[in-house]
Amino acid sequence: MRVLGIETSCDETAAAVLDGDRPLGARILSNRVLSQVADHRPYGGVVPEIAARAHVEHLDALIAGAVDEAGLAWSELDAVAATAGPGLIGGVMVGLVSGKALAATLGKPLVAVNHLEGHALSARLSDDVAFPYLLLLISGGHCQLLLVEAVGRYRRLGTTIDDAVGEAFDKTAKMLGLGYPGGPAVEAAARAGDPAAVTLPRPLKGRAGCDFSFSGLKTAVRQALAREPAPATADVAAGFQAAVADCLSDRVGHAAEMARQRAPAVRHLVMAGGVAANRFLRARVTAAAEAAGLELLAPPPELCTDNAAMIAWAGIERLRAGLGGDDLAAPARARWPLDPEAPPPAVVAGLRSAP
Length: 355
Ligand code: KG4
Ligand code: ZN
Hints:
With 355 residues, the protein is α/β, with parallel strands linked by helices. It folds into 2 domains: 2-123 and 302-320, 2-Layer Sandwich (Nucleotidyltransferase, domain 5); 130-298, Nucleotidyltransferase, domain 5 (2-Layer Sandwich), CATH 3.30.420. It has 12 helices and 10 strands. The chain has helices at 37-40, 48-69, 89-106, 115-121, 123-126, 165-175, 182-190, 215-226, 233-262, 279-291, 301-304, 309-320; strands spanning 2-7, 12-19, 27-35, 79-85, 110-114, 133-138, 143-150, 153-159, 268-272, 295-297. Strands 3-2-1-4-5 form a 5-stranded mixed β-sheet, sandwiched between helices. It has a 5-stranded mixed β-sheet with strand order 8-7-6-9-10, with helices on both faces. Strand 2 (12-19) and strand 3 form a beta hairpin. The longest helix is centred in the last third of the chain and has 30 residues, at 233-262. It is globular. It binds 5'-O-[(R)-(carboxyoxy)(hydroxy)phosphoryl]adenosine (KG4) and zinc ion.
């Protein structure tokens, strides 16, 4: 089964071809990602209109390049998988419409893929990991802990009540004058810093459940920077990163207990999303997972940040599970939760004073 994947939900234009020729996993025949970072850098963040235009400009050539690199003729593709949301709606429409046009022209199935499902299943592309597993999804737009029960079956255990963790990295980088995108810049700056030099809060640490909050941490960074004399950039970066690591570790501990109550067979914690590329956080979350009796698995960094291999892979998983493939009428969605039945975060639901 050879599947073309298309990803355009944020600021990466991506196309990949996978060969699902084994009972488990798949071979990546090509995996092209065109970053729009340079287009958005002058604005210090992703500008939706610029993103959509850049996708329109580059997607066709990128798809052709990916199919060519895979050594396949168009007719040798068995299906097309395209991100149908959630994300910036203009960009999502560009990729989804291109996928639909290709699938219709080739007479092949179209799988409309949830971008978050792409992240959620990416570990099964790189590692042999069985359901159920716990997923820590940490990216620029999301910060969630989910129980992945099967393809298409996700239970959200916790989510952020304000900012996503990647967003907090990006905003902290901006305040520190480290440029955009902020995550890798903060990680690099933190290497030379003393995490104990600046005192920063650990929002929600120790509270029941496994929701997240990062806006207070961001405010604390701003206040620290306003002090005289201003702390060193490296120390703030290190302090911020250490605070994030403490929060993630604490929440993972709680989530492991919650996951086990629902699914005693849980053995693995999978870390995915752009922020999972952070080596310091990986090490800290690995330790937290081990303490909670779980083994950590994280896809390689190039499969953690946005890419189309994970979309093609989600397409293969869906087709193998007998889900999707007839999605020519699927809408592009700005919002598309993986677990539509998830209750609102506990802290928001009035458990603010829970221990
Ligand atoms: O998954 P992703 O590529 O796109 C979204 O779906 O959001 O994640 C992008 C986010 C950005 O906020 C970026 O700053 C962050 O991931 N990121 C990192 C690192 N690399 C990327 N954050 C911390 N450390 C990193 N090394
Ligand atoms: Zn993403």
